[in-house]
From TrEMBL:
Keyword field contains Ribonucleoprotein: no
Lineage: Bacteria, Pseudomonadati, Pseudomonadota, Alphaproteobacteria, Hyphomicrobiales
Protein name: Sugar phosphate isomerase/epimerase
Molecular function as annotated in GO: isomerase activity
Keywords associated with the record: Isomerase
Species of the source: Mesorhizobium tamadayense
Keyword presence, Protein biosynthesis: no
Domain Xylose isomerase-like TIM barrel positions: 31-268
Gene3D superfamilies tied to this protein: Divalent-metal-dependent TIM barrel enzymes
Length: 273
């Protein structure tokens, strides 16, 4: 895939991380992202707001702003690691898979398995893998690709390379893809290029984020992420759909989300995307 064929989207967590300080709604997000120069959006279950049960209306809003739904992302209070919540987590997965099915090409991104209760880590990996695989099967039935998005946030089960190796050994690659997040990989381990290359067949699209050497979130291009290398590896991945989704969690973004994501979009133009 040539760089000129890449598409750049924006993740809405930049606003979600503000909590109560963000008083807008999904239409405000669409406007800010479109005005920032993006072609697509990845929205979360927290930020979809009044469109949660109205995919047709959301499609109309997207069309009005010229945006494509890249992916719908959701997490779980169970951390996808509680056996007694498997049924509930799969019901939620089906809800959002059915939503995404209304948007051709849109994926569903499932959040990182997280430790929210006591018990052996082995059991938590097994439960998470069961949920991901079964959700992937639901996606296959609906014609929607499902992908896993590991993180480095508090109590994540999927932090370092050993964790990635563990979960990928348990997940059916034909059912569940991977959304690598450069910032989270760098916070958990320094072998980002090797990790991306080792599991490149699983890559569906990419989350681009940056961190400094201490692991603190930084604006894209201001940290240690080798963005050009990421683009090179992803572009050669057989199942990569061409979307680079920028997600910004730095203090700069917390002060002015719309300005920060617009700046990141300008940064990406320096890479030809």
């Amino acid at each position: 895939m040539n760089v000129k064929d890449l598409k750049v989207g924006c993740q809405t967590f930049t606003w979600e991380m503000l909590g109560d300080r963000f008083t807008g709604g999904p239409d405000d997000l669409l406007k800010a992202i479109a005005d920032g120069g993006y072609a697509g959006i990845e929205i979360t279950d927290t930020m979809i707001g009044r469109y949660a049960a109205r995919p047709a209306e959301f499609a109309t809003a997207l069309k009005a702003t010229g945006l494509t739904l890249v992916s719908f992302a959701f997490g779980s209070k169970s951390g996808f690691t509680r056996k007694d919540q498997i049924g509930a987590d799969l019901e939620t997965a089906k809800r959002w898979i059915d939503f995404a099915a209304e948007f051709p090409g849109a994926l569903v991104s499932m959040g990182s398995a997280t430790v929210v209760s006591d018990g052996p880590r082995d059991d938590k990996f097994a439960i998470a893998a069961e949920i991901y695989n079964r959700a992937g099967e639901l996606g296959r039935q609906a014609g929607v690709q499902v992908a896993l998005h590991p993180s480095s946030h508090h109590n994540t089960l999927l932090f370092d390379r050993a964790d990635y190796d563990r979960i990928f050994s348990l997940i059916d690659a034909s059912l569940v893809g991977w959304v690598p997040d450069t910032g989270h990989i760098l916070r958990g381990h320094r072998d980002m290029a090797d990790t991306l290359t080792t599991y490149r067949d699983r890559i569906r699209y990419v989350h681009l984020k940056d961190v400094d050497a201490a692991g603190t979130w930084a604006m894209l291009g201001k940290g240690i992420c080798d963005t050009a290398k990421v683009i090179e590896i992803a572009s050669a991945a057989p199942n990569f759909n061409g979307w680079l989704v920028l997600e910004e969690e730095s203090e700069t973004a917390a002060a002015d989300p719309a300005k920060a994501v617009k700046t990141n979009r300008q940064t990406m133009r320096g890479y030809g995307a």
